[in-house]
Each structure stands twice: as C-alpha cells, then as structure tokens.
Design goal:
Blueprint: H1 2-7, E1 13-19, E2 22-32, E3 38-46, H2 55-69, E4 74-80, H3 98-102, H4 111-117, E5 121-126, E6 136-142
Parallel strand pairs: 3-4
Antiparallel strand pairs: 1-2, 2-3, 4-6, 5-6
Length: 147
C-alpha cells in the first residue's frame, strides 16, 4: 500500500485497468531528474490470470501518450532477472561485461521480451543486483522526434 500511496502524489502518473469490475492492471510512472525530460516507468503489474490479453500494452501506451503530450523525451525502466528472463542469467558480468551484453537474448514471453516488443531498448545493466549472477536491466525509449 505505501507504493500505491506514493503513486498518487501530485505530479505522478498512476492508472489502473479494469475488466468486468475487477482491477487487472496498474502502471505507475514518476518524474526523475526534475521530471522535465525523463520519466521512470516504475511499476507495471498485470493480473497473472490475464497474460497476453493486452492489458500491459494498453497501460504502457496510455502512459507514453500522456508523456508525449507533456513533451517528455525519455521513458526508462528497470526489469529484473529473477525468473531467468534472458541469456545472461548466471553470467559473470564483472569479468567481461561487454561480450555477454552484446549478445543478450530474451526468453520468450519474458518481461524483457515484452519491453523490446514495446520499443524499449536495452541501455544498461546492474550486475548481481538481485543476487549472484542475477542482474537488473535498464531499458529505455525515446519519445523525441528529431528534426
């Protein structure tokens, strides 16, 4: 509940998806770096009984449209490796980070793959963030249209 309360602060984006009178998804976005150019997509949660039903896509697209209306240039997010979502699970990213990072492959239907389908790019990693050999990934998307 503290996260939900924080998501409702002025200047944050918080949206739920409702189907048949039940909450089936929630997205929270928040400003970072003074909220002028870059926002964090902090949480996207979708009811596990409705996988691949378009709830996550709809919430994400709504957040992106909201950001575009406010001339926000970048949306970024973190996604974890707790469930073996990529080929880097168990890799020692401290020894030689660039070789494995250059060949990262998502596991089908993983959050990493979902974000790639939504147009988010892999832009960074925190090795061992969730335990030895279990990294956290930084992904981002530009909303800018260059002249």
């Amino acid at each position: 509940m503290p996260l939900v309360a924080e998501s409702l602060k002025d200047g944050h984006f918080s949206q739920i998806a409702i189907e048949d009178g039940e909450v089936v998804g929630w997205l929270w976005g928040r400003p970072l770096f003074e909220g002028i150019w870059a926002w964090e997509l902090r949480w996207l949660i979708v009811d596990q009984t409705r996988p691949r039903a378009g709830v996550g896509r709809a919430l994400t697209e709504s957040f992106e449209a909201w950001c575009q209306q406010r001339n926000i240039l970048t949306i970024w997010l973190m996604t974890g490796e707790e469930m073996g979502e990529t080929s880097l699970r168990g890799a020692d990213l401290w020894a030689d980070p660039f070789t494995p990072l250059a060949t990262i492959q998502p596991v089908a239907n993983s959050p990493f793959a979902f974000w790639q389908k939504m147009g988010y790019r892999f832009i960074g990693v925190i090795p061992d963030a969730n335990g030895k050999g279990v990294p956290e990934y930084l992904m981002g998307k530009t909303l800018a249209t260059l002249p």
